What does this fold into?
Amino acid sequence: MAETVYIETTIPSLYVARPSGQLVEAARQRLTRIWWDEHRSDYELVCSQTVLDECERGEAQMAARRIALLDFVPLLDLSPEVLAISRQLVDREIIPMKAADDAVHIAVASVHEIDYLLTWNCKHIANPHNQRRISDCLSDHGYRSSVICTPEELIGDDD
It folds into this structure.
């Protein structure tokens, strides 16, 4: 069975985004496209309704492209346990209230025992300063954290 990857909103957002003139953002776009086009078939992809809801925001044409990219990706259930854990991540101030959807991504990936949570959100999700606190919160609920990583990290050094 293939390893599982939860696709967080920044992945389809960067994949379909107009080319950036900023060096770091352009590199992230390129790495996202490389991972999606060349490596995603090595994994079983999943996401949640929260991802689709976030992808629908913004310019209609770009939103449609983001949603279309995820058309084949199965949705994981946002169970009461997922919502309770995401509330705890916010209540413990691990994830700020304004980024509550980020807490949902972390919780849904962990509750469903997804191997990797793929994201470019390094402010709240793939933030090394938050990793232990995220892990402790999940552990308090009997879950382990998915490996939170960027496409660059999941590509590895094979290429």
The chain has a mean pLDDT of 96. The beta strands are 4-7, 44-48, 75-76, 116-118, 147-149. Residues 102 and 125 are 7 Å apart (CA to CA).
